[in-house]
Amino acid sequence: MFAGKKGSVFTLIGLYILTIPFFNGLNVTTYDNSQVMGHFGASTTVFTYSVYIPIFVMLGFMPLGLKLGKQIKVRTMILSAGFLSLIFNSALLFVPSIEWFVFFRSLLAIVSVIGIFASMVPILIKYNPAFNMALLYGILQFIQKGSQHLYQYFGAHFTSFHNWTFGIYFLNVNFLICILLAWYFYKVDVAPMKTPFQFDWRGWIVMLLFFLIILFLCAEGQTRNWLSDPKIVLAIGLLFIMAGIYLLHVRFTNDPIINPDVYKFKNVVIGAFLMFYIGIMNGTGSVVTGYMTNVLGFDSVLNALTHLAILFGLCISIPLSTYLLYKRIYLATIWIMGFACYGFYHIILFFRFYPGVDSSDFFVPLVFKGLGMGFLFPVSLLYISEGVPPQLSTSRMMSGIIAQAIFASLLGGAVLGTFISNMNVQHKTGLSQQLSSVNKMAENQLESYKKNFLYMGLSDAEAQKKAEKSLSNQTSQASILLAYKDVYLVMSAICFLPIFIILLFKLWRRPIGRVEVEPIPI
């Protein structure tokens, strides 16, 4: 089926490189949002939907993509995915409206999912089970996580160097390379994992409707102030109704997408909770980029340096955690190292939120974040897959994705934004109440501002107005700093808490067990 000597390192590297463009179909364009919004003249709400929709489409299509990735011949699938990605990606350059932009971007996300699963099949067939599963998960995580941050870094530079279209051209070059590699490596066109096609279409539709409701909550929850809006309350109620409908549907389906039998495995239940927990810890990274952009005024290129810091941490931790898993080190050791790194990341940033902070001050804490990701993500994927039979593979995969990506990262990120806004308002109110004649420091600062404006030639009334506005702006910056500090102090406690629980109850004092299901490193 493959070119080259069986088991050769050259072939293995080529097969892994094939996966990279499909992993990063949406990553390279992370920093072009403002330019795309200006290009199409979209409103903030419409553009928020345009960012979320392709992500939800990609996540929602995964069960079907996994099934199709096994049914169609590998060479045909890879080449088709590469050519379709080229077409859909190029179409983004010529679309007349934001709606068409989202449409083709969603098609690109769907094809990327098929490409990921199809390109992973040869690796599984050629190197597993002879290839240790811990190594397989570790390498795939290293490629997926590493390339993600590298592509996002490049994307920021492409956007600043030319404009948002540069990333489109860069991706097209990637897909062309993918097509050439597939043409070389796949000599025989076969479907080695093909089984009789059977798919839970009804359950899939229910799941998509469930995702659609969460999409609405993510896009409009903060602007509608969550539970104070009747439509948000209705949407949350519909979530429970859709979950009930799915549980009813499962009773009349032989092979559902998410089979409740998978939760008979204790590691799946605990693993899903841990993936949710890790997603919450990892989601505070958006706070850092928001702080760098909105408060410090850094441009996208400076913001993109955060990805290099995280990548540096990943380059240390993923190989180390993979080696430890391969050598059958106790799971508790890796969990503790990962949670500790995330704890240090949050506690260091707690002390970084002060006036005059420089971009270099963020490098060390973000390295700790990369270390935490590298320790926790591979072991999480292995742990939730431990002992799960192949027929429940999709159920295990979707349980982890819904816990980490849907509830923790996407919905949790929207809730976190609201929490920070509310904390900011509270701090600003508290600080503003101190701006009175009783507060001599504030009064002296106001007088100093007023004298400066008077010196600039403004009238007494104009100088007073300008001075009050300057003092108010200073209060606003102080309040947002306090809000960020609150978040990171709470998160540092949340990160260190599992360490005490693991040590107190002597959990996971054993190596990883047997893993038979295919790794899905997303």
UniProtKB/TrEMBL annotation:
> Which range is the signal sequence, renumbered to this chain?
none
Q: Which SUPFAM superfamilies match?
A: MFS general substrate transporter
Membrane topology per record: Multi-pass membrane protein
Keyword list (alphabetical) reads: Membrane, Transmembrane, Transmembrane helix, Transport
Respond yes or no to whether keyword Zinc-finger is given for this record.
no
Q: Where in the cell is it found?
A: Membrane
Q: Name one GO cellular component term.
A: membrane
Q: Which residue ranges run through the membrane?
A: 7-26, 46-66, 78-96, 102-125, 166-186, 201-219, 231-248, 268-292, 304-326, 332-354, 366-385, 397-420, 487-508
Q: Which InterPro entries match?
A: MFS_trans_sf
Main location group: membrane
Annotated PANTHER family? MAJOR FACILITATOR SUPERFAMILY MULTIDRUG TRANSPORTER MFSC
UniProt-recorded name of the protein: MFS transporter
